Amino acid sequence: MEFPLINFEKLNGEERKDTMDQIKDACENWGFFELINHGIPYDLMDTLEKLTKEHYRKCMEHRFKELVATKGLDAVQTEVKDMDWESTYHVRHLPESNISELLDLTHQHREVMKEFALKLEKLAEDLLDLLCENLGLEKGYLKKAFYGSKGPTFGTKVANYPPCPNPELVKGLRAHTDAGGIILLFQDDKVSGLQLLKDGQWIDVPPMRHSIVVNLGDQLEVITNGKYKSVEHRVIAQTDRTRMSIASFYNPGSDAVIYPAPPLLERGTEEKNKVYPKFVFEDYMKIYAGLKFHAKEPRFEALKAPDVNVGPIATV
Ligand SMILES: [Fe+2]
């Protein structure tokens, strides 16, 4: 049972079919895979890593230490269930960028982040089309399903997981599935900590230099009618080193209407037996905000209520 590693370059050659099959298997059985030779320039990744780590040391680390001291997080005796051992900030790229509002980033850092985000956006869209091909959906189906009236939401969560004296009691990030569409992660190549739940066991997502880790969110589970599943994951901080994580989320636009793709519905299934509802993405996010660290099924159930508004603003 090896963590799925996909060599993206092989999609251009004789091994295309095998590589597509590997992606299919990873989507059906893992909800995660790691991409190598994905075309994002390594020097761009190296520069972003250097700038991110510098920024953490200069602007974020002391704030995190203050927070830990205020909350007494470094001396807890029992499991902490309402906080994570992480230092984060968010950058929005689409529908409009907020990067100019992040005042403590240098000009170079902003420019590098923008360039990286543009490349990742393209990679996310290429991946969605590969998923369409494997699912037997027409090219562009998933991109269109995410589009809404203003295009997809695309943003980056930059996180650092500092050394933690009690990683079992205070999780770096508590277990959850991701709400959105497809997630592309540039993670520390030396400090591990990300784990996914497979067959009841927590499995490490192996750090690998210049790789991009891909995982699927709840919306792809809905659209694929459960053929692909969003998978629970968590971060366990290390006791001696800081882990960097730059996770970019390619999600539906807020008014996109999400529902299982008709070609993927089992024939003859009655309405009442359908597992996944139809809803507006922002309504899902309202529910997710309070239930992120709970099982996903009640979120789907909550949206089956007949009074959920799936009005005519933006159908796909
Ligand atoms: Fe996540």
TrEMBL record:
Keyword Glycoprotein tagged: no
Fe2OG dioxygenase domain mapped to chain residues: 152-252
Protein known as: aminocyclopropanecarboxylate oxidase
Source organism of the structure: Lupinus angustifolius
The keyword Translocase belongs to this UniProt entry's keyword annotation: no
E.C. numbers: 1.14.17.4
Annotated InterPro entries: DIOX_N, IPNS-like_FE2OG_OXY, IPNS-like_sf, Oxoglu/Fe-dep_dioxygenase_dom, Plant_2OG-oxidoreductases
Listed SUPFAM superfamilies: Clavaminate synthase-like (SSF51197)
Family from the record: Belongs to the iron/ascorbate-dependent oxidoreductase family.
Keywords for the protein's UniProt record, in alphabetical order: Ethylene biosynthesis, Fruit ripening, Iron, Metal-binding, Oxidoreductase, Vitamin C
GO molecular function (one): L-ascorbic acid binding
A GO BP entry: ethylene biosynthetic process
Lineage of producing organism: Eukaryota, Viridiplantae, Streptophyta, Embryophyta, Tracheophyta
Pathway annotation from the record: Alkene biosynthesis; ethylene biosynthesis via S-adenosyl-L-methionine; ethylene from S-adenosyl-L-methionine: step 2/2
